[in-house]
Amino acid sequence: MSARAHDHYDLLIVGGGAAGLMCALTAGGRGRRVAVVEHANRVGKKILMSGGGRCNFTNTGTTPANYLSANPHYCKSALARYTPWHFIEMVDRHRIAWHEKELGQLFCDVSSKLIVKMLVDECEAVGVRILTSCAVERIGLDDDGRYRLATSQGVLRAPRLVVACGGLSIPSMGATGFGYELARQFGHEVLPTRAGLVPLTLSGKHLERMHGLSGLSLPVTASCNGQSFSNAMLVTHRGISGPAILQISSYWQPGDALHLDLLPGEDALDWLQRQQAARPAAELQTVLSDAMPRRFAQRLCEVWLPGRSGHRPMRQLDPPQLKAIAAVLSAWPLVASGTEGYRTAEVTLGGVDTDGLSSQTMESRQVPGLHFIGEVVDVTGWLGGYNFQWAWASGHAAGLAA
């Protein structure tokens, strides 16, 4: 059935991702006539691919401190009113088995398809109409205050419009800057955007020094601009990735100092002194190989440690040498040149300026009936389910008001 047969609604939602579907089922549950317009051939594509196909759907440790925004207070209201436990209740009601992986991260036991099915089923139960493969060609505001959407499936009209079409990350999944264009069309500021939760790239000698180490993983503490994350780092063909690097990438920009502690949780000098006392005959390289992958320890000794200290027994290293080695281990001097960009970024930093939006309802302060939710807004979460929780919370807030 074409959209022409149903071109009058209470609410139109552009974007059938996590935020859009949550908004739709919430508004539909209040008796609103809702249509979701999705340009892709199916809804929830980023949900489907997330968490290795198992969807890291929330984080039980969610707080406003887990988000980046020009206004760090903006996300507080929505997150307080729709918590991870609200979403878990819906997951449990649909009998979707889940588990905690680490650090409060919750995943489906079976498949992320179950989360999409749950959201679609909830939408259908309250009469929400979902239009897929429906491209929006033009959006305007009629004289009667209704929004008019000219789409590939006909004209849709409603007094309220929710923009939930995401950011620029992973364009292969259909991401575009359409939400930002709409914001500007209606007079909203859009803060500069950049890739977040993204691998970092190396160049020149920094990349050469890592040759042959691709695929190695080790625990690190990555620090930049006052933030630190302890987790795994993965060496790639083009640079470094892994949870610790993805996390710190949101705080790093080219030219910023990046500090990598290769002995997370340890005082490097104290650790070396203990090793020297316990294993005086062992070579430094051998000792380091017990704390990190052997090939990585060898390369560290070849390239970054002073002299030929890596091949010397621990007992031969004097206090100044131990101090110099500790300095490298606690602040490995790796210089990143850039990121892999939106192609592999999990999120987009920046977006619609929250100064122009209500934190209670996500509604525009300038244009009545216009709401912005999810990734298109200048609120970006850490890795680990926080961005889905923002999608649920902001979608719920708009769905209660629209």
Morphology: elongated
Mean pLDDT: 95
What is the C-level CATH assignment of the largest domain? Answer: Alpha Beta
How many strands in all? Answer: 21
| Largest sheet composition | 6 strands, antiparallel
Q: Which bin fits the share of residues in helices?
A: 25-40%
Structure class: alpha+beta
Protein name: Aminoacetone oxidase family FAD-binding enzyme
Cofactor: FAD
Organism: Marilutibacter maris
Domain RsdA/BaiN/AoA(So)-like Rossmann fold-like: 10-399
Describe the structure.
- The chain is α+β, with helices and mostly antiparallel strands and 402 residues long.
- The protein folds into 2 domains: 3-194 and 349-401, 3-Layer(bba) Sandwich (FAD/NAD(P)-binding domain); 200-339, Translation factors (Elongation Factor Tu (Ef-tu), domain 3).
- The chain has 13 helices and 21 strands.
- The chain has a 6-stranded antiparallel sheet.
- Strand 14 and strand 15 (227-235) form a beta hairpin.
- Helix 1 packs parallel to helix 5, helix 1 packs parallel to helix 13 (386-401) and helix 9 (268-278) crosses helix 12 (319-330).
- It is elongated.
- The two termini are 25 Å apart.
- The relative contact order is 0.19.
- Residues 10-399 form the RsdA/BaiN/AoA(So)-like Rossmann fold-like domain.
- Residues 194-347 form the RsdA/BaiN/AoA(So)-like insert domain.
- This is Aminoacetone oxidase family FAD-binding enzyme.
